[in-house]
């Protein structure tokens, strides 16, 4: 008795020993053995043909069982054609790719992770990522990108992590990230960003980590972080920020880390930081050219009494001005700045008071002198 099974199943509909893939023969000698052997050969060939490996670009290494394609450091100057359609992870890092052209990844509907760091990419053409609705992680770090196309995120609705650090970006347009509302991590650090459109981050309501350190920003304006209620870490270190506008930090309700190290802050207003109404936020503020006066000391003194705010590097905050305080630690001065200022104010007040009293006394003497002269003149007449 012969049993024809599904070639991908191990069970059989008849009892006996298994003689091949999907074929079972009863024990003992059969007059139809040659025919059965022929059938067995055909079945084996069919199974072999259906399980043969899918096409894989020559320089790359494909893992069909896990749908991974490894094209790392293969000297590629373009995205190779013929990538398996079921690819889940594609690693093209460490190559010489200069451009990502339209439809470079056409047909890769299952792609979730795309790694293209350490190439020479200077341009992402429109529709270059148009078929990547399920992409969750995209790494374009350490390239030469100067701009992002307006439709960059149009098809990236599932994207959760985007790395664009160590490129040459100078401006971030509002449209570039408009459709990435599922994004959790965005790294734009170590570019040359001078300006960011007011609503560039407006649609990123689920963003948790935003890296902007190592750029050329000179201010943190009101409205830039509107909609960032979920943001937990904001890294702005090593920019040129000299101004934090009054309501710039107000939208941040979940922030746990604010990095402002290595900027150009001279003063900061206590009310600006107090608008961080969070459960607990660590502030990093060293490496700025602080002007250490009584007002600055009062600001940091007040911060230390706010339960949910903690200046993590307070001991490392060093004065830049005035000259007599340059190089000194703000923490080491305790209340000296305010005491010195108070003494100065008292000295000035006393000096002014004495001057006023002296002026009044002189005026009174002059008045009396004039009155005496007037009386003498009256008697002579």
UniProtKB/TrEMBL annotation:
Keywords: Leucine-rich repeat, Membrane, Repeat, Signal, Transmembrane, Transmembrane helix. The chain crosses the membrane at residues 343-361. Gene3D superfamilies: Ribonuclease Inhibitor (3.80.10.10). PROSITE patterns: LRR (PS51450). SUPFAM superfamilies: L domain-like. One of its GO terms (cellular component) is plasma membrane. InterPro entries: Leu-rich_rpt, Leu-rich_rpt_typical-subtyp, LRR_dom_sf, LRR_TM_domain-containing, LRRNT. It comes from the Eukaryota. Residues 55-89 form the LRRNT domain. PANTHER family: ANTIGEN BSP, PUTATIVE-RELATED, LEUCINE-RICH REPEAT-CONTAINING PROTEIN 15-LIKE. This is (Atlantic silverside) hypothetical protein. It comes from Menidia menidia.
């Amino acid at each position: 008795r012969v049993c024809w099974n599904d070639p991908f199943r191990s069970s059989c509909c008849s009892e006996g020993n298994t003689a091949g893939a999907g074929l079972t023969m009863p024990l003992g000698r059969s007059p139809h053995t040659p025919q059965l052997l022929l059938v067995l050969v055909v079945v084996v060939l069919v199974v072999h043909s259906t399980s043969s490996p899918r096409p894989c670009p020559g320089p790359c290494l494909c893992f069909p069982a896990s749908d991974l394609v490894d094209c790392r450091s293969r000297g590629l100057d373009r995205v190779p054609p013929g990538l398996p359609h079921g690819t889940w992870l594609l690693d093209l890092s460490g190559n010489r790719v200069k451009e990502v052209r339209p439809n470079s990844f056409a047909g890769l509907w299952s792609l979730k992770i795309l790694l293209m760091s350490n190439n020479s990419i200077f341009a992402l053409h429109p529709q270059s990522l148009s078929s990547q609705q399920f992409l969750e992680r995209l790494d374009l770090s350490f390239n030469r990108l100067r701009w992002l196309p307006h439709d960059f995120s149009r098809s990236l609705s599932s994207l959760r992590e985007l790395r664009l650090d160590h490129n040459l970006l100078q401006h971030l347009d509002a449209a570039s990230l408009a459709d990435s509302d599922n994004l959790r991590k965005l790294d734009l650090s170590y570019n040359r960003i001078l300006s960011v459109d007011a609503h560039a981050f407006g649609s990123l309501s689920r963003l948790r980590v935003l890296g902007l350190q190592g750029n050329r920003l000179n201010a943190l304006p009101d409205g830039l972080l509107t909609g960032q209620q979920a943001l937990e870490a904001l890294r702005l270190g090593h920019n040129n920020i000299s101004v934090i506008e009054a309501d710039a930090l107000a939208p941040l309700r979940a922030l746990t880390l604010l990095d402002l190290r290595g900027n150009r802050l001279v003063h900061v207003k206590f009310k600006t930081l107090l608008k961080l109404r969070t459960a607990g936020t660590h502030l990093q503020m060293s490496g700025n050219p602080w002007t250490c006066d009584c007002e600055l000391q009062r600001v940091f003194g007040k911060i230390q009494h706010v339960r949910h705010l903690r200046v993590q590097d307070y001991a490392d905050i060093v004065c830049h001005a005035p000259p007599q305080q340059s190089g000194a630690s703000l923490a080491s001065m305790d209340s000296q700045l305010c005491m010195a200022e108070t003494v100065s104010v008292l000295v000035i007040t006393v000096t002014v008071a004495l001057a006023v009293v002296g002026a009044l006394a002189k005026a009174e003497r002059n008045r009396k002198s004039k009155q005496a002269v007037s009386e003498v003149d009256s008697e002579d007449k």
